[in-house]
Amino acid sequence: MTTRDPKDSSSESTKVEVVSTAPELRIGVFPCKCGKNIGAVVDIDSLAEYAKTLPGVVFVQVNRYTCADPGQREIEDAIKEHRLNRVIVASCSPTMHEDTFRKAVKAAGLNPYLCIMANIREHVSWVHRDDPDAATDKAKNLVAMAVARAATLEAQKEQDVPVTQAALVVGAGVAGMQAALDLADAGFKVYLVEREATIGGIMALLDKVFPQNDCSICILGPKMVDVAKHPNINLITMAEVETIAGYVGNFDVRVKQRARYVDFEKCTSCGDCVEVCPVDVPSRTDQSLTWQKAIQIPFPQAVPSSYFIDPKSCLGMDLIRCGKCIDRCEQEAIVSSDTDHYIDFEVGVIILATGFKPASPEKIPRLGWGRYPNVITSLEFERLINAAGPTEGNLVRPSDLTKPTSVAIAQCVGSRNIDTRSGCSNFCCAESVKCALLIKEHYPDTEVTIYYQDLRMHGKYFEDQYLKAREEGVKFIRGRVGEIQQYPKTKNLRVSVEDTTHNKLQLLEYDMVILSMGAEGQSGNFPLPISCTADSFYIESHPKLRPVDTSSAGVFICGGAESPKDIRDSVIQASAAAGRASIILQKGRYPIEALSARIMQDKCNRCGTCVKRCPYGAISEDGTGKFTVMGALCQACGTCAGDCPPDAIYMPNFTSEQIEAQIEIALAERPEEKIVAFACAFCSYRGSDLAGISRMQYPANARVVRSMCSGRYSTKFAQKAFELGAGAVLYSGCHLQTDCHFQTGNHWMVKREPRIRSWMKRNNIDDERFRVEWVSAGEGKKWQTIMSEMSEVTERHKKSQPKLKKPIAKPKVKSKPKAKPKSKTATKLKKTKSKSNSTKKNATTKKKTTGRK
Amino acid sequence: MVDNSHNQELEDLREAARPCFQCGICASSCPVFRVAPEMNPRMSVDSIITDGQVPAEGNEWLCAYCLMCEERCPMGVSLTEILMGIRNISSKEGKAPPDFVESAEALLARGCLSPTSNRSVKKRVDLGLPDLPQPDPEHVKLIFEVTGAYEVLEANRVAVKEEAE
User: Which residues contact A826 (CB under 8 A, 6 or more apart)?
Assistant: First the structure.
């Protein structure tokens, strides 16, 4: 992916500017009583007195309800009056009110990212009600940790990017067509890219569509014409997307269009060329039930209404090899010199409607498709019963072209089977009942039996159709077909199935068997990092609340590419995707995540690990070995920073320096009693909040360090904590496999566990002192249990603490009294000031090195 | 008769049977079910799942272990393991059919189930193959002792005797 980035290079300097203009560190601390919620347990006045002694704190104000209007106004006034440049509100959880206070801070002219919170309600007063002294101590410690972190907070510019007023829709089946039409009708330019020579997708091949059994092409045809004629739609057929670069609002798309060899503006689809073409190939449209020529049109209603030449089967478009069609075409529409070519354009949003493919019956040899001519798939049946199909709508047995008198339909072929696709394919039950009704409509004397496992007639009007089928005399037998054998002479078929309602084996003879084929996913080979399920369907951003969004901003999914679905659901989802996409297009600008990782080039060893870690493809190499982060794509999970070997990735406001500062403060006193708990902002931290909201009591020795994602916790944080003598360390994230808000952060975190454990072993640290846990936002109880269990661990190991084999790498830091961090931070600050002209990155690096000396 | 190891075995079977959704592909593929309708692998699995116990009829002893059911099962259920597990549990309860008990007795007495025929001995000589080792009942006894098969056999001897009386 190439880079074109508004934030990475240009804005880095602006951000640094914001920080360096701060003359000195002036922190304001606002402890909140929250009525009695905090005030009744934590001694707020003593907390306030303590806060005044912390490094950089110039103003402390206690409030009864800081989140109320007067409380917010007081913060604003204090910022102006005392020239505060950092604000710490010691009150509830940041998930509750961080936004509120950031807005207040912004109103006072301070960058909102310079305001953070110390959670002394959910993490202190609500969970340590019975021990006010310990609660007050913990509250003080949490405020000190926040102050230590605040010292190096960075102002972040809230940015947005311009949005190109155009959309790319990939796939022109019914879903892609609907999405394209909706966006085009809303006034946006749409590029509709289709792989085949015509639009229409699978729906164009069907005869009738359930549950009303209306003619498929009769309702689809006009829509196809609308697409072709719409002034806002640029239809590109016989084409596939080759590359996509850029990010939401600004995607650079390159499409490769295959040669058509026929000028579709000249072609009148008269069909004269077909008469002279000497090559016969199996017909794609008719599922190889008949033949077609090398020059062909998929079906009469095809859009664009033009023939094309299949270069693989054509003998040669010159008079020496063949060239008959060129000779014949009066319009001179055949262009033998046509070549594949690329089309480049820019779009702001992308909708993927690449559809599914019908499951392959070849994978299930026991049902005999391919060996026995009278075993056909449901799509083959659609072509046979279709008036435009190879038999002009006469249902015949492929073996002898006679009308079948008995037909069996086998359900769940290619679905609900762990070897092919374990899921239900959603549409095939209704499809089979429709097939049965179509047979009964054309040939009332033909017997139809449906062998089903669970008949899932779940949609609107589906049950009516099922009732109609039973009234028409269709037999329904519960049991999945085990095997199909052919009588060699008659080519009739023997279906063996257990009637599971009666526990009886049925070995019945049929003239024809239709396999009700499920759907197979074909997503995943698109040139954008969008995650797919194991069976190749795109994964939505949230299964319930964001079902058409993907994890990549500005990319939406609909139709069969997301999961197998029928026409109605595809159209619904397509309109939903178009609606979501038009929100971005209509606004014209798109806000992007303010935080984004930066690579410190002087430390980077060019290993490229970060590229593999990034779930958004935001990190790329520029060809000279230099890695850069594309700011608009970065979602700030910090997984890259967590695994960076030389620690060369700077994750603003969750820097290693800030996290380590918090660890140091948390372990400044009696470290052997403490649990350092790392919790991700999306699951575990919310889980710990829930324990607070539910007033679940647990020991007061835990110190939670919050980060965006568990992928951020590098191995050295645990090592640092143990070196400082921590009693226990917890790494907690979202549940595996799929809960991670950033897709894969938790997977990378868990991969670090063995490394930490072997380090612990080498340093004689007991295994049970380190834990990796998965706590969701709903598992407050689990958080409480973990905290209680880990407290027991710290109790047990309190005495063994001095036995550390390799005592401390940096003994200087270990038994530092509380006042010490103050001086340390102060000296750090002075150095920052003196380096005000150098970049922030350099300042950080230098601060670190000086700190270690 | 029923001890903890029994319960554990049954629990393991239940675990193995849980994915089954009773589609009937196993039964329709079973060659034994075609000729002996009482032997239905789906019903055997069902009794493990829904009744939580080993079926009393003992139809699982008819299974020929062709593995067709397991090969075709859409949920990957190991039916042979379940059917064998059912046999193991019921034989420990003394419910093995008499002909199986007789076979076990014969194995214990002779050291093999079917002795090598003269024809195959002659064939081996013709082909220049070495003599097969003679079956040794002592070896089988050792195996019976180590595996606890003696107790299983004893339980079934008692049951056969009781039935005879």
Answer: A55, A56
